[in-house]
Amino acid sequence: MNQRLQALQELGEQFEQMSIVGVIDERAPGARRHSLRRPRMLASLLIALLAVSGAAAAITLTVASSPPVRLPNGSGLCPQSYTYVANTSKKLVYPPNYPGLQPGKARVTRCFTSLDDARAAGYRLAPPPAGITMLGPIYMGPATAHVRRVCEAAQRHTHAVIYCPTRLPTPWLAPVNPDCPSAGCAAPELSIAGSFAAPPSYIGSGPGEGDISLWSATPYQLRHDPVPLGCGGAFGPLHHARPIGHTSFRGHPAGWYECTGTGPFVLAWHIGTQSYGITANGPKGFRKRLARYIAAHLVALSRR
Questions:
Q1: How many domains does the chain contain in total?
Q2: Looking at the structure, do residues 74 and 54 belong to the same domain, yes or no?
Q3: Given a cut of 70, is residue 246 above it in pLDDT?
Q4: Which residue has the higher pLDDT, 133 or 209?
Q5: In this structure, are residues 112 and 64 in contact, taking their beta carbons and an 8 Å threshold?
Q6: d(Cα 45, Cα 41) in Å, to the nearest integer?
Q7: CA pair distance 304, 299, nearest whole angstrom
Q8: CA 178 to CA 163: how far, in whole Å?
Q9: pTM, 2 dp
Q10: Using CA of residue 303, residue 220, residue 282, residue 177, what is the dihedral sign?
Q11: Same domain, yes or no, for 100 and 117?
Q12: Which ranges constitute the DSSP H helices of the chain?
């Protein structure tokens, strides 16, 4: 392919040179320009250009999929931009954020750039592993034991009811910020923040990555915490966000907020002197849906 593209470029340069300066007859007095041979030569160049560009176009039509690169040991690896791994025998395709075991390297038989391309080729999305459900393009699974421990520690420190998530996006990646109070935060509050893997088309904190945070604090902490809760450190505290709607959380008044700029959406509610919230980043049409799902799978840890 590189050789064809190089040939196309060289032919284009010849075409450009001839179309500008023409053909010079050195034997003519004064080295006059002679253009009698230009039509024939230009036609030949045009035919060559069309032939090469046609080959390049044919190559372009196949970029939606690619066979894996076979290594000396027989295993296969997909090229970097082909993130959807397929197995021909089962006609299944696995997205890059699939939480279970993808087909082994030796069984990778095709690679695709998108799920749509794989479906067009006759493949279907692999079913999620046991205990995992799909919310749009995101896989949702049981929260980790670490998340539960953070919630229990926050309940002991705050002596307030803590709403702990039982299901979160998976794979759940490294925390965005230190979890409180397990990280030794000075304020008695709950703060769980993490990122998760997503398809390349999902734009959260970056392509293929989303963010979620859950928090519980007093109104004073929301305004004066060194690491602002609600919108997060990059977008400021919750009271800087724009209210965009009203809702409820288990009978308690709640509201939707949009953080400044391209910031995330926040679902926030208040019970007594305690404020709670879920902050979700990602595509604008999906953030509310994600926050609602997490809110529906919260469990209350009562006071002790």
A1: 3
A2: no
A3: yes
A4: 133
A5: yes
A6: 6
A7: 15
A8: 18
A9: 0.72
A10: negative
A11: yes
A12: 2-21, 38-60, 115-120, 145-158, 219-224, 287-296
